[in-house]
Amino acid sequence: MGIGLFLAFIGLNETGLVVLGVPGAPVRLGNIAQSSVLLAAAGFLLTVVLMARKVNGALLYGIVATTLGSVALGLTKLPSSLVSLPPSLEPIFLKLDIAGTLQPGVFPVVLVIFMMAFLDTIGTLIGLSMRADLLDANGNLPEIERPMLADAVATTLAPLLGTSTTGAYIESAAGIAAGGRTGFTSLVVAVLFGLSLFFAPLFTMVPGYAAGIALVVIGSLMIQSITRLDFDDFTELIPAFLTISLMIFTFNIGVGMTVGLFSYPLIKLCTGRAREVSGGMWVLAALSLTFFIFMPKG
């Protein structure tokens, strides 16, 4: 048994074959000898070095360099054209089923989607605002109702265009890291996104592992927020740990947020410190509990 544990620790089984993680695990080590993996690692290293040297546009340079390398290695094909017309919205525009969403049996689905969108937005806004140094001394975002309203309007308009929920995305951290921290930045990005619809062949040729470099780098930068945790206070540490770990292992910000929002007041209550929990936090805890009651099972 001891030999088996040792072999598992070093990544080998009894036959001498390399075991790349646990079978069925959501995340495990892939083929690190694959060209795309090596290219992504090189692009990541390039991006980190450029950022360490304070080079403006380091994230963009990393993505472009990785994409060009992918083309040179034959992993990515050049598009036949650089410009194209956006696809028609006619098949999905205003295709709504309002009556269907009012059926009693659909209520759990609507509740789950609402909770996921709501908590996802809050978590994203706080995370991005922390990175942009927009939070006050108490860790709150002043006038948070404004970005929440903008997110709500965008989410309401999205179904009219036949798309999924729109709003705040954690990928915006890439723009913050590049120096964009004002409302004007959002307007410029919106215009550029609109123009990008006509250059879809050019942008869709960027492989996922090239764009993913920016997300990995931004994730490493945002982890500094955990330094603000009080590691000596378990009533603060454990809810934060549950939130972070479940975000990672469920691949969902909303799930981590709901667990954190429910466990925080519960632990405070059980330790006789319920007075430290605000009324709004109790409301969020109740909504989080409702989410787990009605969420799809299995």
Q: What would you say this structure looks like, in words?
A:
The chain has helices spanning 2-10, 35-52, 58-72, 98-101, 107-131, 145-157, 173-177, 183-196, 200-203, 208-222, 234-250, 253-270, 279-294. The longest helix has 25 residues, at 107-131. Mean pLDDT is 80; it is low at 1-19. The two termini are 34 Å apart. With 298 residues, the protein is mostly helical. 58% of the residues lie in helices and 0% in strands.
**Helix/sheet category:** mainly alpha
Strand/helix succession: HHHHHHHHHHHHH
Largest sheet: none
Q: Runs with pLDDT <50, length 5+?
A: 1-19
Q: In whole angstroms, how far apart are the ends?
A: 34 Å
Beta-strand percent range: under 5%
How many distinct beta strands? Answer: 0
Please, how many helices? 13
Q: In one word, what is the shape?
A: globular
Proportion of residues in helical segments = 55-70%
C-alpha Rg (nearest Å): 23 Å
Please provide a brief summary of the model:
Helix content is 58%, strand content 0%. Residues 1-19 have low confidence and may be disordered. By secondary structure, the chain is mainly alpha-helical.
